[in-house]
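User: Predict structure, ligand NAP.
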Amino acid sequence: MVEALILWSVGETPVSGPFGRDRICGVVAAPDARGMVRQTRAALRQTRLLEVRLDWLADEEGILQFLGWVRRRPPRATLIATCRRRVAGGRFRGSIESQIGLLRQAIECGCAWVDVELETAENFDKGTLHRFFGRAKCLISFHDFRGTPKNLAAVARRLDRIGGDGAKIATHCKSVADSVRVLQMARGRKNVIAVPMGEMGLSARVLALQQGSALTYAAVEQATAAGQLCIEDMKHVYRADKLDRQTRVYGVIGDPVGHSLSPQMQNAGFRARNINAVYLPFLVRDLRDFLGAIEPLGIAGFSVTLPHKERILRLLDDCDPLAAAIGAVNTVVVRGGGKLYGYNTDYVGVLRALERRIPLRGSRVLLFGAGGAARAVAFALAQGGAMVCLCARRMERAKALARAVGGEAVERRRLRREFFDAIVNATPVGMHPHAGQSPLDAGELNCRLVFDLIYRPEKTKLLQLAARRGIETVSGVEMFLAQGAAQWEIWAGERAPEAAMRKAVLEALRRQ
Ligand code: NAP
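Assistant: Predicted complex:
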């Protein structure tokens, strides 16, 4: 078990910086003035720091209309005006002169900052830029939407040469290592904003403030760059503005990982227990790339999902014997000296979900599917004293797993005639977005209980078929919660707040 986690420093108020008290910047971006006003109002409920993307408005008339509204009803917020040209990845089609003219108008209407891209700034000397923008502060920005340059120090030097009041480096990250390099640009430097873009940079955006970035951006209605989170998630799920150097960082690694409900579940647990920790989704294609980020990001543990559950075994320093027997790890703890120790809590999840409903000892359970999750289920059932029957579309896999757990392989055609105490689906058939499908027909469900490992949707087609036949059903949500609570307990070293975690998962499922 890890030592007790450091408690959250509740009540600590952030020191007001050059962008005001808030450090999560809501990005207001709409094609017309009405949309910009609506988004501004919505964003103000969450933050007093807004970027207004004037270049997203369809024409200059719309920009002037919106700025007129800002002048008449100045929002109580720090506004950063951006009118980025297309050459720098923005949407503004006009000339540099009209861009400067609109930014000057934005200042007159109350914007405290202007964001000027290097492609524009490098056309002028420092004195001229200052004359253009007078009392407003100037953020000089660098964007690369295709990748992260090898030499980021050279980029920083270009930005420094302009001598703005702040600098922003936003690059597309193709690896976790890229996102770490982008974050490092903000370390120990004042008024530098690090923006790791793309799906691979999503978690680094959450960690940006903790790592020294002056602010982090979040979408109000729609993302303006890949990997941008919405402001609600940034603030309430990840609490990005509350993270500090003591925060313990956890996460889930997978590919894909965007659909995972683990961040909602695990963060709700940390919140409920007032623990200074955050749990993030890491899109990981190459395991070694992620392992290299453990030390710089201060990662204390992580969950492992498809397709890495088996491959991670080879990269661990040590592993729970049961996880080794199953041949899959879904939970890793980072111990002293960066040593990695693996567990399998899917196993615990199966037992917790089933044991409450049927006595496993002496029961006969059919497991349909013979992949990674099926291995954990088969070992758990066998350990619980059940006779495990296996059926899969590739019977040789079913036979091999049956041999490993002392069970029996059952041909598909026998299912209509056989009776089981329980049937467990361990295939992805029926999972979102193919919710209309069932892995088994109604006639094959001859049992007292059906357990579907799928948790999205909560009530799969298979469970509906079973319920119609009067069979008791168990959703994959039960296993998901139980394996997640077991992970949480391994990391936190105390009992998981299961009710809070369940509530967060069910709410997220019902929103989808
Ligand atoms: P996996 O390793 O890819 O294994 C999937 C299994 O399903 C394989 O045996 C595969 O057969 C079989 N299969 C796939 N499509 C099929 C089809 N159309 N007809 C018949 N069999 C089919 O995946 P996994 O990690 O075991 O995950 C399986 C399911 O469990 C997923 O839906 C996953 O979300 C769920 N799960 C839930 C939890 C939870 O906490 N609730 C935890 C883990 C997993 P082949 O070998 O022939 O391809």
